[in-house]
Amino acid sequence: MFYILFSLLIIQRISELFIAKRNEKWMLKRGGVEYGSEHYPYIVALHILFLLSLFLEVISFHKELTNSWYLLFPILALTQLLRYWSVFSLGYFWNTKIIIVPDEKVVSKGPYQYLKHPNYVVVAIEIFLIPLLFQAYLTALLFTILNLVMMTIRIPIEEKALKMHTNYQKAFQGRSRFAPKR
């Protein structure tokens, strides 16, 4: 079971990189500006090391699927629905980098009408949940903490860029970082 899920995870991440590259070209042609490029290599490293850590912990320590799999799999399935809802809602504006097209309206449809950063929520849940499925507790704890640290850097940079170049301030006026629309 681990090899199947791990393979699907790798295929998903690689396909997302192709989508992100296509969207990056589209945004740059429209005058898109990249922000946070100095921390982007650390995000890439975090995700690669997460996958490596997960693989090594499960294989090296002969970890098995947890007995609670029947509780965790539905949560994982729901996070995937939220992931793709987020990606499809952003359309060509979805990316793994922070690229802002000046004077475009911020996307506030789909899950973005309820959360400001649903894709980051999905990633946080996955980084915690996937290792738990296979009892890889060290990977779950370590990378949850590392991802939290990275998001405290990334989200403010993204929000500042959106406020400078879009109607972000008005669209999400009075809302906290992960608060639902009022």
From TrEMBL:
Query: Pfam families annotated for this entry?
Result: ICMT
Primary residence = membrane
Subcellular location per UniProt equals: Membrane
What are the TM regions of this chain, as residue ranges?
39-59, 71-94, 120-150
Looking at the keywords, is Acetylation present?
no
Q: Which UniProt keywords apply?
A: Membrane, Transmembrane, Transmembrane helix
How this chain sits in the membrane, per its record, is:
Multi-pass membrane protein
Name the InterPro entries for this protein. Answer: ICMT_MeTrfase, Metal_cation-efflux_comp
Q: Which PANTHER family does this one have?
A: BLL3993 PROTEIN (PTHR43847:SF1)
Task: Name it.
Answer: Isoprenylcysteine carboxyl methyltransferase
Native species:
Metabacillus rhizolycopersici
